[in-house]
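_Full entry_
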Amino acid sequence: MIIKLKPIAAFAILIISITACVQNRHNGKAVKMMAEIRPEINYVTHLYTLAELGFSDEDYSARYGGTLPRPAVDTMQKYRELLTFGQGEGGMLAGPFFFGVSSENIPNSDTLKLIIEKIKDMTRETGADSDLMGAVEAISKVYLENYDSYLESVFPQAKADMEDRIDLLNKRLTRNSFVKDWESVTGYKWTRGDYHWLLYRAGENGPSYNNLDSNTNTVWYNQPLDYQLSMFSHEFGIFLMQDAINPVFEEMKEYTASLDLGKDLTYVPWSAFESLSCWYNCKIAGEETEDFRNFGQADAETFCRIFDRLSKEGITDPAELYRKGIIEYLKED
């Protein structure tokens, strides 16, 4: 489930990692594909999992449930509609508190406090009312009061749990060629430097593969390996195509919202984009890929059949395939 929410502010990425280099070259430089472990995304998913905000993980909750006080859980659950997200849509505070915080480099609660103050300032600048600011204050208190204890009592073991997976993934990444393959099949060029996958320990069931930056995804660490590698390719394709697709995505959101067909069509632009990445991924692999087999919620099978037909009719540009694919899908629907 790939989410395209943008944080409320621009957040820097400073990576603490074990890295591996994929044998691709872009403008004479090798593009590194890296699977990494950082505390920030692990802290945010820790909070979201223990508060059951669209994430769940029985093993993790049994192991670490006692590390988050009940009042903190209650506060997070009180504001769940503001914090949860999925299928391209999200609560008003998911941007800053999930995506924004987890994309920062935060060694301790003093640094987190500075980030939280930025979130508060920017929320005020949007003209937020007292109820929304009250929610921001309450959520901020939870984040600040529990971070240092998380770093001391939870993250060291969570990190140790993931280290073998990091080694395995980075060995596999050295044998993949995502940049070359996707540039070849789409005709687009990758211009964003190295590519990062940030692993987290909490939240086995939840919206994984969430974009934190223009070249950074998050992912639950222990998914089946074949599926995970297929999704790594899938997500790289999403990032490669998004500059061309995003304007059409917004156009199609407005178009589907304007239709009066007696049902909610807001999922269609999201579904089409995910399905287009599945379609190209299958072309690269020369067979059905794990992302295609697991994107039933996006109706990938129907969309890919449409993309096959349009491609045979001579439409090859990904953005045009995407736009016409949605129009044809709505006719079928």
